[in-house]
Design a protein that fits this description.
5-stranded mixed beta sheet, Glutaredoxin, 4-stranded antiparallel beta sheet, globular, 33% helix, alpha+beta, 8 helices, 16% strand
Length: 312
């Protein structure tokens, strides 16, 4: 029989919602020598004029402050199986070893899970690699730059939605390939409708909770520094909002857990019995793990909590 720690709720499966916000655009590309840097925001982005459209306030080209990230109220949390809420929960180790598909993810679900788990904003790039000249130029001038790649790997989770659908799996029959192409095209159409992506390239920056905080449409040759500067400003806005959101969740019992392979997850303990823990992440993802699979620091924390509550 499960023994629930009295300081944690026993229910889980969060129904998340997200609100969309927009960022202003720009009319003219940056001029002069392009200088890439690891973290600095180009001076032209910080200036009040220079002919780049409407000046923006410090913190990003945001029309209004981003919506504060909120935890779903407990009255909105339900079980899919209320009689056995812990049935068939995935192992935490399985979740943390989810494969990555290079710098750019190709699944919205996987990308959003990574963004939420790693606390990073999600950059979604709508492109047509076969027919859009400006998508090719954007890829060459910015995304292929080693400095940008290093920065983006540290700061962002990236998702590419490419209208050029190609299925090269040799294990699939012709009919299976055709079915797969139809599925991908349906997925792309749904994504374009969800984010109102008009034309190529179109990029959207989302908070780890899924809220849109930046929209960037179109690209002009030679404006890589300016474009990157916009992304940096958006990442700053997201990082500040995430800190506040995480602090609020920590006050509700969420903490960072780490396994023996130094992989981390931000989650709340909802149940513990005989060395088995049930964890819930802010997006509602639930998993189980064993105490002996966690770091020494986590095991010490558990031992302290058990001692405080006279649990064995």
């Amino acid at each position: 029989m499960m023994r629930f720690l009295p300081w944690f709720p026993a229910w889980v499966l969060v129904l998340a919602s997200c609100a969309k916000l927009g960022l202003g655009g720009h009319d003219q590309p940056a001029t002069g020598t392009v200088s890439f840097g690891g973290t600095a925001i180009p001076p032209k982005i910080k200036s009040a004029g220079d002919g780049f459209g409407t000046p923006v306030a410090s913190g990003g080209n945001v029309a209004k402050p981003p919506v504060t990230l909120n935890l779903t109220p407990e009255e909105d949390i339900v079980f899919t199986d209320p009689d056995n809420p812990d049935a068939k929960l995935p192992e935490l180790s399985t979740i943390l070893t989810a494969p990555k598909h290079g710098p750019w993810e190709d699944s919205e679900t996987a990308a959003k899970q990574r963004a939420s788990r790693e606390g990073k904003p999600l950059l979604i790039w709508f492109t047509d690699s076969a027919r859009s000249p400006m998508c090719k130029v954007l890829a060459q001038e910015l995304f292929a730059n080693p400095d940008f790649e290093k920065w983006a790997s540290e700061k962002l989770v990236r998702l590419r939605v490419d209208a050029n659908v190609v299925v090269n799996d040799a294990n699939l029959s012709l009919d299976e390939k055709e079915s797969r192409i139809v599925e991908i095209r349906d997925y792309i159409a749904r994504m374009k409708k969800t984010y109102k992506a008009l034309g190529y390239p179109s990029l959207f920056l989302l908070n780890p909770s899924g809220e849109v905080i930046g929209r960037y449409r179109g690209y002009k040759r030679g404006e890589a520094e300016f474009f990157w500067g916009q992304l940096k400003r958006g990442e700053e806005v997201s990082a500040n909002a995430y800190k506040d959101w995480r602090a609020k969740l920590e006050s509700k019992g969420y903490r960072e857990w780490q396994d023996r392979k130094d992989r981390k997850v931000f989650a709340k303990l909802t149940a513990y019995t005989h060395g088995t823990l049930i964890l819930i992440e802010p997006d509602g993802t639930r998993s189980r793990t064993q105490e002996n699979k966690l770091s020494d620091k986590d095991q010490a924390w558990i031992a302290e909590q058990k001692k405080l509550r006279t649990l064995q």
